[in-house]
Every structure is written in C-alpha cells, then in structure tokens.
Write a structure and sequence with these properties.
Elements (H helix, E strand, L loop, with lengths): L23 H19 L14 H11 L5 H15 L7 H26 L10 H27 L6 H34 L6 H23 L3 H19 L3 H19 L6 H87 L6 H31 L8 E4 H18 L3 E6 L6 E4 L1 H17 L5 E9 L5 E8 L30 H11 L3 E7 L3 E9 L1 E2 L25 E4 L4 H13 L3 E4 L8
Parallel strand pairs: 2-4, 9-10
Antiparallel strand pairs: 1-3, 3-8, 4-5, 5-7, 6-7
Helix pairs in contact: 1-2, 1-3, 2-3, 2-4, 2-6, 3-4, 4-5, 5-6, 5-10, 6-9, 6-10, 7-8, 7-9, 8-9, 8-10, 9-10, 10-11, 10-15, 11-14, 12-13, 13-14
Length: about 625
C-alpha cells in the first residue's frame, strides 16, 4: 500500500521514531512486555457464558503497526507471537496453539491497519481528526475480527467441528477483539492525535464547563456501578463520553470510551448472575464507540475547518494589504510619470513655439531666396510635427492624471468634417494616395458634442492610416446608427499593410507601436482615440487583416442641437498692419518668458506698433 509522507513539523509519527536502527531489538522487548503483561492480566478476567468483554492485545499490536514503517513490522510480529506464547504458559494450551493464535493476532492487526488505511486514505490519516479517519477505524475494528475469529475458533477448539462450542468461541473472539480495537487503537493514537489537536485552543468556558460536567457524570456512573446498577452506570458513562467527544474532540473520545468500558466491566462484575446482559452490553458499546468517534471526528473537522478559514482570512487580509500597498505605489509612480511628462512637455513646447514663431517671421521677408524659403518651410513642418507629438504627450498625461474633462457644446458637424478634410487631403495627395470622404444623408448637421475631441479622433485615425499606407486609398466615412441618429459612427479605412491579429489590441496601448515598423511617432494617437471615445461614452472597434488594410470604427452617442444654438465662428484673418491714417500706437509687452516677449514684440512691430518691453518679471502664481 502506498505510504503517505509526513508533512510539516510532524516527523516520525508512523515512521519508527522510537528507537535508532542499532537498537531495534529494544522495541521488540518493549512491545512484548506491554502485550504480554496485558494479555496475562486479561486472562484472569472472568468469562461469562463464553463471552470475553474486552481484548486489547491486538489493539496494541495494531497501534504499533501504525507507529512503525512497514519494513519494521517484522519486529511487531515477533513481539506479538512472543507475548501470546508467554501469556498462555499457565493455561492448558499446547505450544502450537499459542503460536497459531499469535500468528492470527498479527494477521488481525495487519488486516485492521490495511482496511482502516484504505478507507481513511493512508495510515497517518487513521484516527479521530477526520470523518474518513474515524470511519476507517470503526470499519476496520468491526470487520477484520470476523476473519480472524473464524480461524481462531478452530485454533481454540482445535477442531473443525462448527457446533455450539465453536459458535460460542467465535462470538467470544469477535466481541472481545472488536471492542478491543475500538477502545485500544484510539487510545493508542490519542497521543498522536492529541499532539495535533491540543494546539487548537478551545474557549476556557467550553473546556471547563464540558469537562466538569463529564467528570460529574463519570463520578455518578462509578457510584452506580459500585452499587451493582450496571445499566445505569453504563448509560451515565455513555452520556459523559458523548459530552467529552463534543468538548474535546480527538482527546475526549478515547477517554470517554475507556471510562464507558470500565463502568460496564465493573457493573457486570458486580452482577455475575446477569449473564444475558453481557452480549447486550457489548453490542451497546460497539454502537456507542462508533457514535462518539464520529462525533469526535466531526468536532475536530469543524474545528480544523474554522482554523483553516481563520488562517485563510488572515492570509487574505495580509495579501490585500500587500496589494493595496502595491496599488498605492503604482498610482504614485504613475502620477509621478504623468507629472514628469507634463512638465517636460511644457518646457519643450515653450521654446518650440518660439522657433515656429520666428521662422514664420523670417518667411515674411521678401528678400529671401527660394532655397531659404524652402529651408524655412522644412523648419516649420518639422516644428509643427514635433509640436503635435508634444501635445499628444500632454493630452495623455492629462487623461492619466484625471484632469481631462468633456467640453460639450453645440457644433456644426459638416463644417468640422470639411475642416478635417482640408487638413488631411493635402497630406494624402503629397503621399500619392487617394483620399475619399463619404458623409451619409442621415448625418445631422447640428449636434451637441465635444468638438475638439471629435476633431482629434478623426485626425488621429486618418493620420495613422496615412502613415502606414504606401499606396491605394484612405477613406473617411461618417454615418449614424440607432434611432433619431443618436449614435454617430466614424469609420476610417485604408489599404495599408494591415495589423497582425495578435497585436490588434496592443495598438491602443499608450507608447506602443507595431513591431518591425519604422514609421515615426509616439505611439499615442490610437491610445488617445480610445481614451477620448471612452470619455465620450463611445467605443472603438478594429477589423484588420495582414496585407489587406484596416478599418477603424468609432461609435459615439450624441444629442441633436438647433441651428440657433450654434455660434458662428469668425473667419480667421491675418493682420497685415495698421490702416492708413492711424496714429502711432504704443504697446507695452508684459510676458515672463523672454523668447515669447521678444516674439510678440516683433509681431507687433511688423504690424506698425511702437513696442515697449518690461524688465524680466518673476512668474506669478
């Protein structure tokens, strides 16, 4: 039978930890002494009508087998046979009967261990710490003596005649061995189980109350037994045993069994003429022991389950505390990252605006050559691209820090689409791509929406498609879904390289770009699209096949607006200078940033103003 390893800090139980290898014969003598002493004493107990009330030698052998490894069981077998021979020296048995009965005792102990272990799930599980352990103990104690008692009856009578004498002997052996195993094995395992269960702290009130009540019942049982009232003594002892099992579990059940058996023996000894009560008493003990062991096992299981639950709760609380700490650290790190990005982006954008402003001033110089003008155009385009990247970083930092809010207002949707088309068509044509814009007839003109974020969604999707499409078409389609046009749908389709399926979800993560793609960018444009769509209560979908292009679909809920609610924006006009006949205007430029102050002054001077500058000012809060 496969052995179960001992776990935790429980080495040695069931693994021959009593004696070292070189002194194993000490174990043989020790077991022989215990079994022989009890067997000799038990032989002096009275037998009533061929009924032996209790026989513990086999229980001692079984307990020893449970404490030893199977390779050391031979020591136990030798001790059992030796004890049987010694205990029958003063009887009329011949040597071969004693040897045969000793072998049967070893067989019974072995069968008990095998049957009980099979049911309990291992030798180390036999006991009162679980329902299966208690069931294995009871089943083994009741069933295995059936086999050995059948053969033992032949040994005792030394005859193959199965008459009345044989049946009486069989009944004697079965009752005595079964009760012995039921009482003796749990008592023998009490130390092991007690070591495991004594650490379970029981409430003081429960221990004192239950223990005191059980002790009082045992005193009453002893008094009844002394007066010859075996039935009353036995019933009182049974009540005390049940109470002990409920109160102390694996410790109380064997103790209760021993007290119950003692009360029964004393009661029967005081009423020697009540021969018929002996079998009934034995049957009652079998039922009682099975019951109190089940109670003990259930009590221990409940106690252990409670402790495991408390330990799990404590572990969970500790884990949650660790997780909470980790979350706080992550949030702090994320906030620090967002603050850093926002600060750095702002510091970069300030001088970049100056570069773009001064390059624009230079482009107005009529004396520039064509090459110089082209160089300034390159500076402007590169600076504009860099400014767009910085703005994306700032927008993402605002989103992650929770500072981004919706600014919903009435707007002219076709006008916004036309503006986006004008911005992106030149870029598409410069790349040699066909640019198609389709607006469905059901698209409302006036809606309530965050126009700036809606514009950014379209620009980011189109910019992404133009970036990764080398030939073919980039299309912008706008239509509505649901009733009354309450869901605005924006689709951008391209004939580009497509996106692998395993990377389609990653493209919406911040600072993420496709592998093996050398296109420039921060990897934020699609992340901002999803963040803005989520912020507006919408969603983003992607359909793409590698080599066949991609389709991005954004759905955003919108409300309809009226024409009178939409404010018409003034057309942007370039100021060339003061009108003729205007007086000379003097303007004081107040600006903390020196480059910005100088740029603003140059622009005003070109327009014809007389500019005065303040000294450098400290930044105000």
């Amino acid at each position: 039978m496969p052995e179960q390893s001992n776990a935790g800090n429980d080495p040695g139980w069931g693994q021959a930890a009593f004696w070292p290898e070189q002194a194993r014969w000490h174990g043989v003598l020790w077991i022989a002494l215990i079994v022989g002493t009890y067997a000799g004493t038990a032989a002096l107990l009275p037998w009533f009508d061929g009924i032996g009330l209790l026989w513990l030698p086999n229980a001692i052998l079984a307990t020893a087998l449970l404490r030893f490894r199977p390779r050391d069981w031979s020591s136990v077998y030798v001790a059992g046979i030796l004890a049987e021979v010694v205990s029958t020296l003063n009887s009329d048995w011949v040597l071969h009967q004693s040897l045969a009965m000793g072998v049967l005792n070893d067989v019974e102990a072995t069968l008990f261990v095998l049957v009980a272990a099979r049911i309990a799930g291992g030798r180390n599980n036999i006991g009162l710490l679980s329902e299966r352990g208690a069931l294995g103990l009871v089943a083994g104690a009741i069933t295995t003596p059936v086999v050995t008692s059948t053969l033992g009856g032949v040994v005792v009578t030394w005859s193959w005649s199965f008459g009345a004498e044989y049946l009486t002997t069989w009944r004697t052996l079965w009752f005595g061995d079964s009760l012995g195993l039921l009482v003796g094995v749990p008592a023998g395992l009490l130390l092991r189980d007690a070591v495991r269960s004594v650490g379970r702290r029981r409430p003081a009130a429960l221990a004192l109350g239950g223990g005191g009540a059980a002790l009082l019942l045992f005193v009453v049982s002893a008094l009844l037994a002394a007066k010859g009232n075996s039935w009353g003594a036995q019933q009182t002892a049974v009540a005390a045993a049940v109470l002990l099992s409920l109160t102390f579990g694996a410790i109380g059940a064997p103790a209760g069994a021993m007290f119950t058996t003692t009360a029964t023996i004393i009661g029967i000894a005081r009423q020697l003429d009540d021969i018929g009560s002996v079998p009934r008493s034995q049957l009652l003990l079998v039922v009682v022991f099975a019951a109190i062991y089940a109670i003990a096992a259930t009590t221990e299981s409940a106690s252990r389950a409670k402790e495991e639950l408390e330990a799990a709760n404590a572990q969970l609380s500790s884990y949650l505390g660790t997780v909470q700490t980790a979350v706080e650290h992550a949030e702090a790190a994320n906030k620090a990252k967002s603050d850093f990005l926002a600060t750095m982006s702002h510091e970069l954008r300030t001088p970049l605006n100056s570069i773009l402003g001064f390059s624009d001033l230079l482009r107005r110089d009529p004396t520039l050559s064509a090459d110089q003008r082209d160089d300034l155009d390159i500076i402007n385009r590169s600076g504009g691209h860099l400014l767009g990247l910085i703005n994306q970083v700032l927008d993402m930092a605002k989103i992650e820090s929770g500072r981004t809010q919706l600014e919903v207002s009435p707007m002219d949707l076709p006008l916004l689409i036309e503006d986006v088309e004008l911005m992106m068509r030149a870029r598409a044509e410069a790349a040699g791509l066909q640019f198609v814009v389709e607006v469905a007839d059901d698209v409302p003109r006036y809606i309530r929406c965050d126009g700036q974020k809606l514009r950014q969604i379209m620009l980011n999707l189109l910019g992404n498609s133009l970036k990764f499409t080398t030939s073919g078409v980039v299309s912008l389609r706008v239509h509505t879904a649901a009733k009354a046009g309450s869901l605005l749908v924006i689709e951008v389709e391209d004939t580009g390289a497509g996106i692998p399926e395993d990377q389609q979800e990653r493209v919406f993560e911040p600072f993420t770009q496709l592998q093996k793609v050398g296109a420039p960018g921060t990897g934020l444009s699609l992340a901002l699209v999803r963040e803005y769509a989520d912020l507006m209560g919408g969603s983003v979908e992607l359909r793409s096949r590698l080599g066949f292009g991609s389709v991005f679909r954004v759905s955003i809920p919108v409300d309809l607006a009226q024409a009178e609610d939409v404010k018409t924006a003034d057309e942007s006009r370039h100021v060339a200078g003061l009108a003729p006949g205007q007086p000379q205007w003097r303007v004081l430029v107040v600006e903390d940033e020196p480059l910005n102050r100088l740029l603003l002054g140059r622009l005003l001077e070109d327009a014809g103003f007389v500019v005065a500058y303040t000294p450098r000012m400290a930044r105000s809060a």
